Amino acid sequence: MNFYTFVKMLHSGFRYVVFVMVLIAIVQALLGWFGKKAYTEGNRKINLFSMIAVHTQILIGLLLYFLSPFVQFTSQTMKDDTTRYWTVEHICMMIFAMILVTIGHSRAKKITTPEMKHRAIAIFYGLALLVIVMAIVQSHRPLIGS
C-alpha cells in the first residue's frame, strides 16, 4: 500500500468519527436547548472533541488534496465536473463546514446562559453537518460505505 492509498483510507474512515461526534454534539445541544438543561462539562467536552475531529479530518484532507491525482490545476479543471469537484468544490465546502463548527464552538464558549450555549452548538454544528453531508452526496459516493 502506498502513502496516497493510506491517507485516502484514513480520510475515508475518519469521516465516521467526525459524523458520529458532530451528530452526538447536535443531539445533546438540541436536548439541552429545548429541554432547558444545564450546559455541563460533558457537553463542553463533546463539543470540543467534535471540533477537534473536524479539524483533524481537514488536516488529513489537505494532505490528501496535495497527493490526489483527482486534484488538477489545468485549463480543463473547471470544464470537467469530477475534476472541478475534487479540486475546488469539495475542499471549499469542507473548510466552510470546519469554519461553522469553529464559530459555533467559539460562540458557545463566550455565551453565559446554558440555553443559548446549546442553541449556538445546535445551529452551527447542524449547519456544518448539513454542508458535510451535501459535499459527500455531491461526490456521488455513498454516505456509508466506500
Total number of distinct structural domains: 1
Q: Describe the global form.
A: elongated
Report the uncertain regions: none
Question: How are helices and strands ordered from N to C?
Answer: HHHH
Alpha carbon gap, first and last residue: 17 Å
- CA gyration radius, whole angstroms: 17 Å
Explain this structure.
This protein has 146 residues and is an all-alpha fold. The chain has one domain. Helix content is 78%, strand content 0%. The chain contains four helices and no strands. Helix 1 (3-34) packs antiparallel against helix 2 (41-67) and helix 1 (3-34) packs antiparallel against helix 4 (114-138). The longest helix is centred in the first third of the chain and has 32 residues, at 3-34.
Strand and helix layout:
Layout: H1 3-34, H2 41-67, H3 81-110, H4 114-138
Helix pairs in contact: 1-2, 1-4, 2-3, 3-4
Summarize the structure.
The protein has helices spanning 3-34, 41-67, 81-110, 114-138.
